[in-house]
Amino acid sequence: SIVIHWQPPSSATQNGQITGYKIRYRKASRKSDVTETLVTGTQLSQLIEGLDRGTEYNFRVAALTVNGTGPATDWLSAETFESDLDETRVPEVPSSLHVRPLVTSIVVSWTPPENQNIVVRGYAIGYGIGSPHAQTIKVDYKQRYYTIENLGMFDK
């Protein structure tokens, strides 16, 4: 299964009161048949169940009014997990961390936690002068490196 979340169109572009949303999805590997799901009311998320394991899907959402269906979002992709993973615990620490300083940037790279049975939805990279939490960047669970850019040169 995959949970999708969305925001309503801006009030200036709604063209009437929104009565629900139309979700369209399909397997990404080939141009497969599109499945539609209707969500009524003001709900802004939907659990899509019955999907194949370890499979990438494309999703798009359009708002509905009494006059019909509005324009849809761009297609976005998400992938189901290959096996059932534990979501009752937080992930462990990444199994390695490497930091390579350059003149005005730092390249951070890591490997996932050793325990692969706990869901990892993403990574948070904290950095800052005197505090590792001054700024935080969040990246996708598939990402294994990040370049922190535009770090000024500082006199010692």
From TrEMBL:
Keywords: Disulfide bond, Immunoglobulin domain, Repeat. CDD domains: FN3. The keyword Disulfide bond applies. Gene3D superfamilies: Immunoglobulins. InterPro entries: FN3_dom (IPR003961), FN3_sf (IPR036116), Ig-like_fold (IPR013783). Pfam families: fn3. PROSITE patterns: FN3 (PS50853). One of its GO terms (biological process) is cell-cell adhesion. Signal peptide: none annotated. Residues 1-83, 93-156 form the Fibronectin type-III domain. It comes from the Eukaryota. The keyword Disulfide bond applies. This is Fibronectin type-III domain-containing protein. The lineage of its organism: Eukaryota, Metazoa, Chordata, Craniata, Vertebrata.
